[in-house]
Write a structure and sequence with these properties.
globular; alpha+beta; seven-stranded mixed sheet
């Protein structure tokens, strides 16, 4: 299936939150539960199957952050991540925010490429974010995930 068949819907109850998907992008359940308190979760569905998730969190009146964006491993590389990013941008524009922000690990090479191709620019680094905020070491692409790379896009 292609993104043409993708439907993105807002989560209405906590029972609908796809923790197994959110865990793909953030291995800390505590962190996920914390940003779900203020953020809004969206499900990406193909027919009735949930294949992706997105969590958006307002940061004041002029900025919004993508706290989590994930696509099921079996569905990656099919354009669904791009579609979720586009949906986040649409919501940000409709909300009147000026900046859309996303953070990812220094070892998240595919995500860094995706976000930059979508027009996000690196604006900062939070040194040692992952080593200070996560109990277990994280490794991706053979690289220790230590630092949070912050990207933003002007709406």
């Amino acid at each position: 299936m292609s993104p043409l068949y993708l439907k993105i819907v807002e989560v209405k109850t906590n029972r609908e939150i796809p923790f197994e998907l959110l865990d793909l992008a953030d291995p800390s359940r505590a962190m996920i539960e914390e940003y779900l308190k203020t953020g809004t979760c969206y499900l990406a569905k193909v027919e009735s199957q949930v294949i992706g998730a997105l969590v958006l969190d307002p940061l004041g009146s002029d900025r919004m952050e993508i706290k989590n964006i994930a696509v099921a491993e079996s569905e990656q590389g099919k354009g669904y991540g791009k579609a979720l990013l586009a949906h986040a941008e649409k919501i940000a524009r409709e909300s009147g925010v000026k900046k859309l922000i996303i953070g990812t690990g220094n070892s998240s090479l595919n995500q860094l490429a995706l976000y930059q191709k979508a027009g996000f620019e690196i604006v900062g680094i939070e040194k040692d974010f992952f080593t200070q905020n996560y109990p277990e070491p994280i490794f991706e692409n053979g690289i220790s995930c230590k630092h949070k790379i912050i990207l933003e896009k002007t709406m």
